[in-house]
Amino acid sequence: MRFLFAGGVAALVNILTRIELSNFMGFTPAIIIAYLFGMTTAYVLMRAFAFERSGRHLHQEYIRFGLVNLFALFQIWLISVGLEDYVFPWIGFVRHSETVAHSIGVLSPTITSYFLHKYFTFSKR
Questions:
Q1: pLDDT tens for residues 30-57?
Q2: Nearest by Cα to 118 from 18, 7, 8, 19
Q3: Residue 104: enclosing H or E segment and its boundaries?
Q4: Rounded (10°) CA dihedral 84, 90, 94, 96
Q5: DSSP code of 51?
Q6: Phi/psi class of residue 25: alpha, beta or left (left: φ > 0; alpha: ψ in -120 to 50)?
Q7: Using CA atoms, how far apart are residues 60 and 43, in angstroms rounded to an integer?
Q8: pLDDT of 12
Q9: CB atoms within 10 A of CB 48
Q10: CB of 83 within 8 A of CB of 105?
């Protein structure tokens, strides 16, 4: 539950940041930059509340966290852009399509990220 809460807060930061960034740049760069804000928020919250200390230095743990999230970013981008550019136009969905596509994308790696963080990022040395 603590993982879901931390991830939910981070997802909200990610989505709200992407909405704001979309006022100044394209959808894909906004997704990537917003993801960095959400990822850092997730790391801080998950380290504090969701997982036990791994015994690694902070920078080592953050690099491992980043590697897991690099995989998740690709998944989020693929789903978000796939929905926005292909699926939603095909079904005629246009109202807030970027936000809906991005929200679905952000939620997509929840299960895989949990297990990768538990057994890789925050595993005991």
A1: 988 998 999 999 999 998 988 888 888 8
A2: 7
A3: helix 97-107
A4: -30
A5: S
A6: beta
A7: 12
A8: 93
A9: 10
A10: yes
